[in-house]
Give the backbone structure.
Amino acid sequence: MDTQHFTALIKQRLQQAEATSEQAEQGQAVVELDQSRVGRLSRMDAMQSQALNQAAQRRRDLEVQRLNTALKRIEQGEFGLCHECDQVISEGRLNLDPAALYCIDCASARE
């Protein structure tokens, strides 16, 4: 298995997640409660948008954590092995999700 390819892929995805996080910071700003500047419905929309942005950031943070763990598995020589059955995870699956922990059979059984 070409671990250099997957290392580059993981690092690329980490850079994308970082860039997206930087862009999304503005959407997570504290919503002002000054009714003279913003109406109640507009404030409610802003709060909903803020909550959505915060949830998206939590998902990005989790993805960054998964990708960093995948890099550690590459360093330890454990990358691409299913955590359940110790079989090799297909390269196609790893190209889609380089942080995958399970082969397709074990992932399906877990659902």
